[in-house]
Design a protein that fits this description.
- It is a single chain.
- Helix 1 packs parallel to helix 9, helix 8 packs parallel to helix 10 and helix 9 crosses helix 10.
- It is built from 13 helices and ten strands.
- The N and C termini lie far apart (about 60 Å).
- Strands 3-2-1-4-5-10-9-8-6-7 form a ten-stranded mixed β-sheet.
- Among the domains are: about 110 residues, no CATH class; about 90 residues, no CATH class.
- By secondary structure, it is an alpha+beta fold.
């Protein structure tokens, strides 16, 4: 029994519960959608001495499976498995973590038509990329559609139609968006190098387009909003980066004891959950988005100070200290990139037809 791991797990659950109860500003909202969840996993390489206890694909590793509530910007659930555990094996947890009316956004590592069908039956919304080799059928008939042949014939910058997916014939909304010319040209070069030959017409279409599948209807999310929503999936990638670099997960690679590794990782996850809640409350009175990576990096060097204030219950001193760090954070940047929230808000008015970088 790992008492240290159990202790930090308990703390993590308390932090998650506090985050769920907190009323924090929503980064994005959709009609008839309660919460937007991002699901993903990240692998952490470990000392080879742990290869028997925590085996990975090629070397010792563990995998952190994460549910991130994009609406409130808080952690909702986390589990840790051995590195060779597939993303597919965790999908059954997603129904328990979410509620009817929630939107689930995941990458292709989780894609399975029967799973989407189950989410639909359980009144969850879903959004995912569509696999290149997915069998699709016309909605109004049973004839199979050569999707990429049809896509390659499209001269528009986007399309939005209802199709049947897989052997289950799940009726779903398929949205296609042509990439900007500079991006699809780079993709074409990569594909040519991979194949070592000239690409077919269908393969060229696969490089030029992003295809999404969802059960959100057009009144809930336009084509542009669908694209912006899926781009927000990178928020969870940024969180993993902040967790590994900002909260210093590097030292765990030197440990040769599974108990030490588990306890250390859960302590970092607990800290991340707390910092996200603090960030959410600060965000209420702060103009613009407080970026997760920068926030973690700024506060991670002062954890002992924050801990001493909490232990002494010096809440006013703690508030002043965080305000001081926030003031330093708020120094205007010379060239500021648009935040995720700004990009999402702009998507409702974006017109693909008017953009010069979208060229056939």
């Amino acid at each position: 029994m790992n008492q240290a791991e159990d202790f930090f797990k308990a703390l993590f659950e308390i932090a998650v519960s506090a985050g769920n109860k907190a009323t924090l500003p929503a980064i994005c909202e959709l009609p008839r959608v309660a919460n937007i969840f991002l699901f993903d996993a990240s692998t952490i390489s470990l000392n080879q001495a742990l290869s028997d206890e925590l085996p990975g694909v090629s070397k010792a590793s563990c995998k952190i499976h994460l549910a991130f509530n994009l609406t409130s910007q808080t952690l909702s659930h986390t589990s840790m498995t051995e590195g060779k555990c597939s993303d597919q094996s965790t999908k059954t947890d997603h129904l328990n973590i979410t509620e009817p009316g929630d939107l689930i956004i995941r990458d292709l590592g989780y894609f399975e038509v029967s799973d989407l069908q189950r989410l639909n039956e359980e009144n969850r919304f879903y959004l995912s990329r569509l696999p290149l080799r997915m069998r699709v059928f016309h909605d109004e008939e049973e004839n199979r559609l050569n999707l990429w042949q049809w896509v390659s014939s499209q001269r528009s910058f986007s399309f939005d139609r209802s199709l049947k997916l897989g052997t289950e014939k799940l009726i779903s909304r398929v949205v296609g968006i042509r990439l900007p010319k500079w991006k699809w040209k780079a993709r074409l070069e990569e594909r040519k190098q991979e194949k070592g030959r000239a690409l077919s017409k269908e393969e060229k279409a696969q490089a030029k387009w992003n295809l999404y599948v969802t059960n959100l209807d057009k009144t809930q999310a336009s084509i542009e909003v669908i694209q912006s929503l899926y781009e927000l999936r990178w928020q969870i990638e940024i969180f993993f980066k902040a967790l590994k670099s900002g909260l210093k997960l590097g030292p765990v690679r030197r440990a040769s004891c599974k108990r030490v590794v588990s306890a250390y990782i859960w302590s970092r996850l607990t800290l991340a959950a707390i910092l996200l809640i603090v960030r959410g409350h600060v965000q209420k009175s702060h103009e613009g988005e407080i970026r997760v990576l920068k926030w973690f990096n700024r506060l991670s060097g002062h954890l002992s100070t924050i801990g001493s204030y909490i232990q002494a219950k010096k809440w006013l001193a703690l508030a002043k200290f965080i305000h001081q760090k926030l003031a330093a954070y708020c120094i205007p940047e010379k060239s500021r990139r648009k935040s995720s929230q700004e990009k999402f808000n702009e998507s409702s008015t974006l017109s693909l037809k008017g953009r010069r970088d979208f060229k056939a």
